[in-house]
Design a protein that fits this description.
Among the domains are: 13-50, Irregular (CD2-Gal4); 76-187, no CATH class; 297-512, no CATH class. The protein is 57% helix and 2% strand. The chain has helices at 21-26, 38-43, 76-83, 88-91, 102-119, 123-132, 137-153, 155-158, 161-186, 194-210, 214-229, 255-268, 303-319, 323-330, 351-375, 384-403, 420-437, 453-462, 466-478, 489-534; strands at residues 239-241, 287-289, 446-447, 483-484, 487-488. It has a 3-stranded mixed beta sheet. Helix 7 packs antiparallel against helix 9 (161-186), helix 13 (303-319) packs antiparallel against helix 15 and helix 16 (384-403) runs antiparallel to helix 17. The longest helix is centred in the last third of the chain and has 46 residues, at 489-534. Mean pLDDT is 73; it is low at 1-10, 53-101, 275-280, 322-326, 330-346 and 408-413. Keywords: DNA-binding, Metal-binding, Nucleus, Transcription, Transcription regulation, Zinc. Residues 19-47 form the Zn(2)-C6 fungal-type domain.
């Protein structure tokens, strides 16, 4: 065969230099349709977009073969972070935008703003954070890191390990660079850096929670708020806070950021891993909650204001719960024999305080009713999830106050028959949770703050009716995959299922004892009858 007729194979390089990144990696010709190419769409992969500027290829510098080569124990990107001298990241802040892979960071930022931003379900402080991120490299790195981790942990990318590894590598690289910025901020003095430190801490909390590192996430929040915020206060005491008024005494602290910390504090105070000396009024982060009396307004200007009022009521009711009871509930084991007096401590609410909280809860529900009715209409359906969360939390607070009001110090409240108010509250909570789980805006993923799961947990453990427990399990099945801070739908489902099994076993045992007692009575009667017949 003549030499000129031999067909040469295509060189191992992209056909075009202007195609999308995905086609370049696959080494195929790209049709260059924007924003995503048609070839990627047909192949069923996500198009990673196009590079902003195409730089001419540069030759790699030749290595001296005489020099010994050290084997890297870390990925290349992490080695770059590890080689930075300690003095470098304490002397100056990182550059405004990441020097490596800039277009990718832009895509991750867009993904966070358009998807993750809404899914986390805590828009106020995230809006503030996105605004300040334009001038804060540390926040930029963390946003890019959290966004990459969200994409890596999604079901879509779990099915494609190659792309999952790519997102994970980017997430860890940016996370390491953000830590450098945090070290710089921590080395400064005063409250000027408090805003950025709070924002960074919340993003790191989300980063750790997405990976299931709950203890690490809690420790980081504790360390940041106590060591970098509380210790910088003039009196170095607990941080004074009320849900009803914005934080104004510290101009550099955004009120929404502090509110997010307070909401997490209430959530973390009931964590099963709390210290043994945990008290019901204590704070994990170092916040002193206000107990000043106030009057409930007859109406609310918006949902955000109504949320602050119900959160204050929840905090007051939670602080008044018996310490041991809270621990038993959170550990998933409700005692069946101790009497109510064993639960009582100096923080237990009096009957007058319980009645006052019930009155305020009823007033709140009446004032909030127009928002709930509007959320059932097509015009207000976009608010249905957050409105339902507040309604469920209000009903749950009323249920707990009713169930554990110490009417008789010698009676176990867990064994008391449910009142009509308690039964109605359970039905209302289950119905609203079921409706929310079937709503188009319901997120079966991670959200920052509490929503429905804690209420379903309490209903599922407190009820003594098997049918109610089965209904709770059905709703939790529909919510499968949802995580609300430290609350996981699967963990709650297992706890309720175990309580159902324990209830069924106890009733079988009770029925057996009743049958045995009845049988013994029958034998005694039969013996007496036989004796009388013989005589």
């Amino acid at each position: 065969m003549p030499l000129e007729e031999v067909r040469k194979g295509r060189a191992g390089k992209p056909k075009v230099r202007t195609g999308c990144k995905t086609c370049k990696r696959r080494r195929i010709k790209c049709d260059e349709r924007r924003p995503g190419c048609l070839r990627c769409e047909k192949f069923g992969v996500e198009c990673d977009g196009y590079q902003a500027n195409i730089d001419p290829p540069q030759r790699r510098p030749k290595r001296d073969p005489l020099l010994p080569q050290k084997r890297a124990l870390l990925p290349k990107d992490q080695c770059l972070i590890a080689r930075l001298p300690q003095s470098q990241h304490l002397s100056q802040e990182p550059s405004l935008m990441p020097a490596l892979d800039g277009p990718n960071d832009h895509q991750y930022f867009q993904f966070f703003r358009e998807k993750s931003f809404h899914e986390f379900g805590d828009l106020p402080w995230m809006q503030v954070m996105l605004q300040s991120s334009h001038n804060q490299p540390t926040i930029q790195y963390l946003i890019s890191s959290v966004s990459a981790l969200c994409r890596a942990t999604s079901l879509k990318y779990k099915r494609t390990p190659e792309y999952q590894a790519q997102h994970l590598q980017h997430a860890y690289r940016r996370y390491g660079q953000a830590v450098q910025g945090i070290r710089y901020l921590a080395s400064t003095s005063g409250l000027e850096s408090a805003r950025t430190l709070l924002q960074a801490s919340l993003l790191i909390y989300i980063f750790e929670m997405l990976q299931g590192n709950i203890p690490a996430a809690i420790r980081h929040l504790q360390s940041t708020f106590r060591n970098l915020i509380v210790d910088r206060l003039p009196d170095k005491g607990l941080f004074p806070y009320t849900h009803l008024e914005p934080i104004t005494q510290y101009q550099c602290m955004d009120s929404e950021l502090v509110t997010s910390f307070a909401r997490l504090d209430v959530q973390l105070c009931t964590h099963p891993d709390s210290p043994p000396n945990f008290q019901s009024r204590s704070t994990i982060l170092g916040i002193a909650y206000s107990t000043n009396p106030y009057s409930m307004p007859g109406s609310f200007p918006d949902i955000a204001t109504a949320r602050r009022y119900i959160e204050d009521l929840i905090q007051r009711a939670r602080a008044g719960l018996p310490t041991n009871l809270v621990r038993h509930l959170q550990n998933g084991s409700v005692p069946s024999s101790p009497i109510a007096a064993a639960y009582r401590n100096k923080h237990w609410l009096s009957d007058e305080e319980v009645d006052h909280l019930h009155t305020q809860l009823s007033q709140w529900q009446a004032a909030f009713s127009p928002f709930y009715k509007r959320s059932l209409t097509p015009e207000g359906t976009h608010d249905f999830i957050r409105v339902s969360i507040l309604c469920v939390q209000a009903s749950n607070t009323s249920l707990v106050l009713s169930k554990f009001r110490p009417q008789d110090p010698n009676t176990d409240p867990l064994l008391q028959p449910p009142s009509s108010r308690e039964r109605d509250a359970c039905i209302e909570i289950i119905d609203m949770c079921r409706r929310a789980a079937r709503h188009e805006d319901f997120i079966k993923g991670f959200v920052v703050h509490e929503g429905f799961l804690r209420s379903l947990f309490i209903v599922g453990l407190l009820t003594r009716e098997e049918d109610t427990k089965y209904e709770v399990l059905g709703v939790l099945e529909e919510m499968s995959g949802r995580r609300e801070g430290i609350w996981d739908a699967e963990v709650v489902r297992i706890a309720v299922k175990d309580s159902l099994r324990d209830l069924q076993e106890s009733r079988i045992l009770e029925d057996g004892l009743k049958f045995e007692d009845g049988y013994n009575e029958y034998e005694t009667y039969d013996d007496e009858w036989s004796g009388s017949s013989t005589n």
